[in-house]
Amino acid sequence: MAEQGERIPSIRLPDLDGTPVALPDDLAGRPTLINFWASWCGPCIEEMPELNRYATAQGDAGTRVLGIALDDAEAVRTFLERVPIDYPTLLDQAGPRDSSVQLGNPRGVLPYSVLVSADGRLLKQKVGPFQAGEIEDWAD
């Protein structure tokens, strides 16, 4: 399990097209806010517009936003058709060793967010949803 200040463990997860993404190596070079969510999680859904707003404001040079859905692939695709977001989403299955647990979420509470440095170290963790305007202060 990742500890603050340490490099996060290597994790490979598929994107919505099935293409594997390797964390943290494929994210190197920019800080990344990783948000764990599920289509059935009310607070997750409520914070998505705020995450999307933040991701858009960061552009191609700022902090990257990455969603990891601990959910069924079809449920995620259906949900994202109704609630589109502009940042990428990876897929994982909830469980005792899922990627959120490996990144410091032992109880599996959603939503759960982590901030990873450009060189792959765990900087911050947050259990619960972001409120409007909160992400900038938390991620900077």
List the helices and strands and how they pair.
Layout: E1 11-14, E2 20-23, E3 32-37, H1 42-58, E4 64-70, H2 73-82, E5 89-92, H3 99-102, E6 112-116, E7 122-127, H4 134-139
Explain how this protein is built.
This protein has a domain at 41-119: 3-Layer(aba) Sandwich (Glutaredoxin), CATH 3.40.30.10. The strands form 2 sheets. It has a 5-stranded mixed beta sheet with strand order 5-4-3-6-7, covered by helices on one side. The radius of gyration is 14 Å and the shape is globular. The mean pLDDT is 95. The two termini are 24 Å apart. It has 140 residues and is an alpha/beta fold. It contains 4 helices and 7 strands, in the order βββαβαβαββα.
Give me the strand/helix succession: EEEHEHEHEEH
Summing up helix and strand content along with how strands pair, one would put the structural category as alpha/beta
Helical content, roughly? 25-40%
CATH class of the domain at 41-119: Alpha Beta
What does the overall shape look like?
globular
| SS field, number of helical segments | 4
Main-sheet strand order equals: 5-4-3-6-7
CATH overall fold name of the domain at 41-119: Glutaredoxin
Main beta sheet: 5 strands, mixed
Please tally the β strands and state the result: 7
Radius of gyration: 14 Å
Low-confidence stretches: none
Strand content: 25-35%
CATH architecture tag of the domain at 41-119: 3-Layer(aba) Sandwich
Mean of residue pLDDT values: 95
Gap between N and C termini, in Å? 24 Å
Q: What is the H level of CATH, i.e. the homologous superfamily of the domain at 41-119?
A: Glutaredoxin
Protein name: TlpA family protein disulfide reductase
Domain Thioredoxin: 2-140
GO molecular function: oxidoreductase activity
